[in-house]
Design a protein that fits this description.
helicase, ATP hydrolysis activity, ATP binding, DNA-binding, alpha/beta, seven-stranded parallel sheet, 34% helix, 6 domains
DNA sequence: AGCACGCCGACT
DNA sequence: GTCGGCGTGCTC
């Protein structure tokens, strides 16, 4: 038997499967998805089995055996292995990178290089194995220091090379000699970073009657020991030592003496850490649904029951009760004996959200988010592996939960940009979810109050027509796209092993079905939104950051003891620092960006690289003292608030106040308990929060996002305002929203103020189409960065022309290569940045072409420390 | 990624 | 004449 293995080296030349033989002893263990240790050149590497085969497809003389299997059961399912291949093709990354992203960090291989004394079975000349003083004595040609090293290593069995060099740090050369001459031998080990947590566990004997007999034997002064025996006789199951001690309030000594008598056994047993074990969750029952919810629920649950792959876009206004629909749909899925994945943006993975799911499904739920420790995350993942849970709620990467029977995947707040991973593999969880669902014939629900244009596009007749027209050719073409990107392998990918699994990724997309919920639960009205023209305020002589109306509103809430949420999408104190005499602006010496003043630390700092220096009192350029802080950040608003409203209790939430673990939660709890009057923050306060006493929401500068050089600026502004407006008046008290802006006539702001998604979407669609932007056209952004501009420019030009050249062969397909030009932020951390934009219409093979072009530069990247990053814009893939 | 093999400059 | 620079290629 032979296995195809992807090895743990993310490089162009190793981005293919290597063949290994499966030793007899491992035959029952090695499966598609197994993590193995394999010899690779002179060393050992971790790898993933992606295919099993009865005959070798390559030169049998070269094939080596798999050295070791690293897990008891494969950490990846066959469908995940196939999905990894799809991801590597779609998002242009090495296959190992995609595979690696699917398992918890705890299982990432750690390579340890150890040395040990060579046990030379035939080498009588060097009988070092049973190292006696005598044996060392025979080698009088070894220096005393060398003999000492050998003795040290022999005593320890094996020593990590780094540790040995540290211990004998002046003798590095001698160690090398010993290794070269074969006295010491290097051994490679592939190890996990994490081991399962163990707990001492007490094991009673098989026969509980025996315990009673022993209990009788005990003298009366051993009452505690007797208690233990009686308890175990009553309940003859293994019990954690700590639990036992707590339960009977006894000390470990009591148990120890029983163990010493040989009556009980104490062993270490793996346990799972449960980050939520200390919390009890109030069980909830399904609520009765509103007619609209009921209708949507029916639409979703029917295909779940019929095991049909469908994608629904659920557009539900804030407060329309989407979560209850999710919960009941999941129940339907579980009733089918299948599993469900729920993705939520990291930021809204708050205890409230977890509570709702735990409350409904109890310990059937695993939770995955970045605030968990390495070990906790590993344990949650193992719960899935061991089939202890059937629902996963988590951020982006939870889409890779190793379930085998997925029936439903829900993506809440589907428009959130955090579903796109910034590092390689730069996947978008929405697209991966649809791909994974198609493997399982599962249903996808994309939920949002402000669906992304991409997802909306999927519901349009235009998309359906395009998809239908493409159907035949795309099927055929996709199959050919499964070929190895680099042309290195002649075999067609690895069609993921077992052909009887339903897994088959065609890459073809079904049209999305739009579901709408217009009404809020219990018919609460949406809050009234006032747009405030800040230019008018200025004309009226108000130069403060608060309009008169917003000021009055805040004052009013303070009187009424109601709460306020203020949004400002900018942290720090001011945006930039300028000398009014000469116009000097403080800039980061490492990045092409101005420095932001931070009041608390009296420093100016760079939000890109963290560079900081002391605040300016004198202009470094002209020595003038007329330094002024321009623009407004959260810190400044906080300062202003305490000045204007003496005694006001403000909570400020931004990256600066929430880096500490658990601080996010802490602030929100404080606010919920009404220990503050006003919550001020960046976009993190806009999402998913639900506080009954908030009746006022203010956006201090609604157009900060609008002015960014991004074709999605209007969409993001609309989303942000809609989200933040949804924070007000969610309960009995009616809400009110103030939006301050310098662009009051902008359609994104007007539509948001009218809660009118439809008209915003239509307008934006028209504009996107006209300007040839997504979702009508697709974009791939290639960013190159390097310390030196000339090399950077040369390479960028070369890459652009290479892409053009390759694109020519695809004529008459319209592919535009824009650039190269300097990136909007032309330097970050001392590295200059250039970019190239590829624009084209629905043709998935372009990404492959770009990858091909980029792959040609990998050598250069390695040698010159040049980086090329490729971002496939989130898109509706067909 | 590592590591070996291989072809051209300053040195015992 | 050699030691050593890192350019090119391979790893089942």
């Amino acid at each position: 038997m032979y296995a195809k293995v992807i090895v743990d080296v993310p490089a162009k030349q190793t981005n293919r499967a290597f063949d290994y033989s499966v030793p007899e002893a491992l035959r029952d263990w090695v499966a598609v998805g197994s993590r193995v240790s394999v010899p690779f050149g002179p060393r050992k590497l971790q790898g993933f089995v992606v295919e099993l085969d009865d005959r070798s497809v390559m030169d049998p003389a070269k094939v080596k055996p798999i050295a070791e299997i690293l897990d008891l059961s494969p950490p990846l399912t066959p469908d995940l292995v196939q999905l990894a291949h799809w991801i590597s093709q779609t998002y242009l990354c090495h296959e190992i990178t995609a595979l690696q992203a699917m398992i918890p960090g705890a299982l990432k291989a750690k390579y340890e290089r150890h040395v040990r004394v060579k046990d030379d079975s035939m080498g009588q000349e060097r009988p070092m194995s049973g190292l006696s003083g005598n044996a060392v004595g025979q080698h009088s040609f070894l220096l005393p220091a060398q003999q000492e090293i050998i003795r040290y290593v022999a005593a320890k069995g094996s020593v990590e090379i780094e540790a040995l060099l540290q211990r004998f740090n002046s003798e590095g050369k001698l160690i090398k000699e010993l290794m070269a001459e074969g006295y010491l031998q290097e051994v490679q080990m592939v190890k996990d970073r994490m081991t399962a947590k163990k707990a001492l566990t007490v094991f009673p004997p098989d026969d509980p009657e025996q315990l009673r007999a022993w209990a009788e034997q005990l003298p009366s002064r051993s009452a505690k020991q007797k208690e233990v025996l009686e308890l175990l006789a009553e309940r003859p199951v293994p019990v954690k030592l700590t639990d036992l001690l707590n339960e009977l309030s006894i000390s470990a000594g009591t148990v120890k003496s029983l163990v010493e008598k040989g009556w009980l056994e104490l062993r270490e047993v793996e346990v799972l850490r449960d980050p939520y074990s200390h919390r009890s969750f109030q069980r909830t029952v399904p609520l009765s649904l509103m007619p609209e919810q009921e209708q949507v629920f029916q639409r979703i649950s029917r295909p779940v029951m019929d095991r049909e792959h469908r994608v629904f876009l659920l557009h539900g206004v804030t407060g329309s009760g989407k979560t209850e629909v999710y919960l009941q749909s999941i129940q339907t899925c579980l009733d089918q004996g299948r599993e469900a994945i729920v993705l939520v943006p990291e930021i809204s993975l708050t205890p409230q959200m977890v509570e709702r799911f735990k409350g409904r499904f109890g310990d059937q739920v695993a939770v995955m988010h970045s605030r968990l420790s390495h070990g906790e995350r590993y344990d949650e993942w193992r719960k899935i592996m061991q089939k202890q849970v059937r629902v996963v709620i988590g951020a982006r990467s939870a889409i890779f939960a190793p379930f085998t029977q997925i029936g439903l995947i829900i993506i809440d707040e589907e428009h959130e940009s955090s579903y796109k991973q910034e590092e390689s593999p730069k996947y978008h969880a929405r697209d991966v979810a649809i791909a994974r669902a198609s493997q399982h014939d599962a249903v996808v629900v994309l939920g949002s109050a402000t669906p992304s244009l991409e997802s909306m596009y999927g519901t349009l007749p235009e998309y359906k027509a395009e998809a239908a027209a493409r159907e035949d050719s795309s099927q055929a073409r996709f199959r050919s796209e499964q070929l190895d990107l680099f042309g290195a392998s002649t075999e067609a990918g690895h069609p993921a092993a077992d052909n009887n699994s339903q897994a088959r990724l065609t890459g073809r997309r079904v049209p999305f079905e739009l579901l709408t919920m217009h009404n809020r639960v219990e018919g609460r009205p949406l809050p009234r939104v006032h747009i405030i023209d800040m230019r008018e305020e200025l004309r009226q002589g108000n130069r403060s950051m608060f309009s008169r109306d917003l000021y009055k509103a805040i004052e009013d809430r303070l009187h009424k003891k109601e709460q306020t949420v203020l949004l400002l999408n900018r942290r720090g104190y001011s945006t930039f620092v300028m000398c009014r005499t000469c116009g000097y602006v403080a800039e980061c010496p490492h990045c092409d960006i101005s420095l932001t003043y931070h009041q608390s630390s009296r420093a100016i700092r760079c939000h890109y690289c963290g560079y900081a220096e002391r605040e300016l009192t004198v202009c470094p350029s002209c020595s003038s003292e007329h330094i002024r802080h321009f623009g407004t950040g959260t810190q400044r608003v906080e300062e202003e608030l305490t000045k204007l409203f003496p005694g006001i209790r403000v909570i400020r939430m931004d990256v600066d106040t929430t880096t500490e673990k658990g601080s996010h939660e802490k602030w929100l709890t404080l606010f919920r308990n009404r220990q503050a009057d006003l919550l001020l923050g960046t976009q993190m306060v806009a999402k998913g929060l639900d506080f009954p006493h908030v009746t006022l929401v203010g956006a201090i500068a609604a157009d900060t996002v609008l002015n960014l050089p991004d074709f999605r600026a209007a969409e993001r502004t609309f989303q942000l305002l809609t989200q933040v407006a949804g924070r007000a008046g969610r309960h009995e008290l009616p809400g009110e929203v103030y939006v301050q802006t310098y662009a009051p006539e902008h359609y994104s702001i007007i539509s948001a103020s009218r809660h009118d998604y439809q008209s915003f979407m239509e307008k934006e669609m028209t504009l996107r189409k006209f300007h040839e932007y997504p979702p009508f056209h697709r974009l791939i952004l290639i960013t190159l960065s390097h310390e030196q501009v000339p090399l950077l420019m040369r390479t960028a030009e070369l890459l652009a022309s290479r892409i053009k050249e390759l694109a020519k062969e695809l004529q008459p397909m319209p592919v535009e290569v824009l650039g190269p030009v300097a990136s909007p932020i032309s330097r970050i951390k001392d590295r200059y940045r250039f970019q190239c934009m590829i624009k084209y219409r629905g043709e998935a093979s372009i990404s492959r072409l770009v990858h091909q072009a980029v792959a040609g530069f990998e050598e250069l990247e390695r040698q010159q420390k040049l980086t090329i990053s490729v971002d496939v814009d989130p898109q509706v893939l067909m």
